[in-house]
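Margin note from the TA: students keep mixing up input and output lines. Inputs are the sequences; the output is the structure of the whole complex. Example:
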Amino acid sequence: MLDLYQAGTSPVHMLKPGWKILCLAAVGSALFAVDHIGFSTAMLAATLVLYRIAGLPLSRAWGQIRPAVWVFGLIFAAQVIFNSWIIGLYVLIRLAVLLMLAGLLTLTTRSSDMIDGINAGLGPLRRIGVNPERVSLAISLTLRFIPVLSHVVHDVREAQRARGLDRNILSLAIPAIIRTIRMADEVSDAIDARGS
Amino acid sequence: MIDVQNVSLTLGGRSVLRDISLTLSERRIAIVGSNGSGKSSFARLLNGLHLPTDGQVLVDGLNSRSDGRKIRQSVGFVFQNPDNQIVFPIVEEDVAYGLKNHGLSPAEREAKVQNILQRYDLIGLRHQPSHTLSGGQKQLLAISGVLVMEPRYIVFDEPTTLLDLRNKLKVQQAIASLSQTAIVVTHDLDLVSDFDRVIVFDEGRVVADDHPDTALRRYIEAMQDA
């Protein structure tokens, strides 16, 4: 969600985020409820077709799995040792479908639309005191500030390295936390200033 | 018109501003002063981010103490570090954020967002993650996020401090082209040399308030003597 969204006008892009999230949950549940490799393989094929419908190359589908390839390798090895390679393959297909569908959701949904969907989904929880706007703002801020905080940590690490403190976790953590707290104060002011 | 009447401000037990009375009605007003002189705290009083300990701040007759939300609609605020002001991960979403808070429909939001992004040459970056923009583009995005709400007054807190010369010139041009009243807190004396009025702060008090030539000369002399 940080920078994955690919603008488009495909039916997948146009589908409301709430429905996409619901479909993801339904397919995820079905993959584990229907214990048949044929079903999982059909879901894999359907997922790849959805990528094409969304106007995305299949390399983007592979891109969702690539960072987790070593996890896939470990799971497959464990299944081969304790079960069989067929079951190993079956588990991998399920995981691959889930990762690719979750990726498709983020590739075709603006973070603000996703947040609106979450907001609408949490609406009924108002009755028990949950404020959906606050929850969705918190999610948005989390997405926004992951790269910013990573930049802060990088800056502090460089400054500490320049002073010969490259292996001291406290010398990294304390200034990074202090800068983050100061930043949080100003972000809070900025949100107030923009009428939240 | 912004009317600051006998305002004092204490933050964390420290007296930051002392008995300030000013009427701000010119189109371009600069606030200058050394670090810790109280100028940024003063700026935050103007849109109700800080409330005065004594005295009052009136914006077109609205009191910041009782009408803070309304005042924040008419007084926009651009912070020094745009990274702390950009709330949404994608450029167009961030610009639309304030409009959404004010209840505009998606169609109205889209029209205004497109218009402001075009104005600041950010339209090609509308789907881009905000963290990938350059410093100058981020500052222009922060300015767009404020201007899209069409405030009557805009307060800038050191808007060029973190920028290189090229980006500084872009922001300077953006400020010059505003139709609204701009109140700019800055250390950048070139930026304000053609303003209508310069107010100099020192240790929480106004020590000069005049045309740029006179006020800046007094400020520079005071800094050289210190």
